[in-house]
Structures are given as C-alpha cells and as structure tokens.
Amino acid sequence: MRRFPISAILSLVACVCSTAVYAETPQQILDGLTQQAKTESADFQGFDAARGELFFKQTHANDWSCASCHSDNPLNAGKHAKTSKAIEPLAPSANAERFTDPKKVGKWFKRNCNDVLDRTCTAQEQGDVLTWLLATQ
After folding, report:
1. Nearest to 91 by CA among 101, 76, 103
2. Domain ranges of the chain
3. CATH no. for 47-137
4. Hey, what's the signal peptide range on this chain (predicted)?
5. How deeply is 6 buried, as exposed, middle or buried, from its count of CB atoms within 10 A (0-12, 13-18, 19+)?
6. What percent of the chain has pLDDT over 90?
C-alpha cells in the first residue's frame, strides 16, 4: 500500500476547502444584501421583484438602464452599449455562474451602477434586482 506524505494530503484538503469558501449561491449573496440593507435603513421591509424589474429596465443618469447592455430579458445574452462586447445572460437560471462570487458581484454592481446611475447602488436596489433575477425563469 502506498502512503502519501501528510503535507501533501493537508495541501489538497486546504485547496478543496478554500475554493468552497469562495463558492456561494445567489441566495447567500441575497442574504448578505439583506443584512447590508438593514444597516443602511432601519425602515428596510425586504426586497421586491417588481421594483427590481422596474429599476433594471428604467433609464437613469446618462440615459442608460441595466437593460441597455444586459437586454430587457436577462435570460438572453446582452451586448455592451459602447464596446459591443458580448455579455452572458444575467439571470442565474440561464447562467449558473452568475451571483456565485461575492467579489465579482460587488465589483460589477459598483462598476455598472456608476455607469448607469452615476453613483453606487444601495443594498436595497441591488437586492431588488437580484430578487427579480432569481424569479426570472
């Protein structure tokens, strides 16, 4: 029987465990936004899919909306309004990789909200949009 050095086994376990730590579900991302929204506003009453859809499709500063690049239907691929770069579907039901990495979620909400709104999105706005995207089948 072949024996493996304990350091090799521990390294393998560490790698497996570290990737699991970064893997999240869209619901876990939403749960984090819930906690953030509660700290931003004592009046937080929860997220609303209809409000999220309206926010997503409505034009804001710069006459852009989220749909300007992601399309009105987040089950479909989109295209960046300025660069024409292809964008994979935004809805988690159409793209299982969406909303699974908290760092990417934060990065893209920050970047896209600044482009669309000229400001950072609130946790309420992010949660409303994500709630709608999770309901989109």
Report:
1. 76
2. 47-137
3. 1.10.760.10
4. 1-23
5. exposed
6. 77
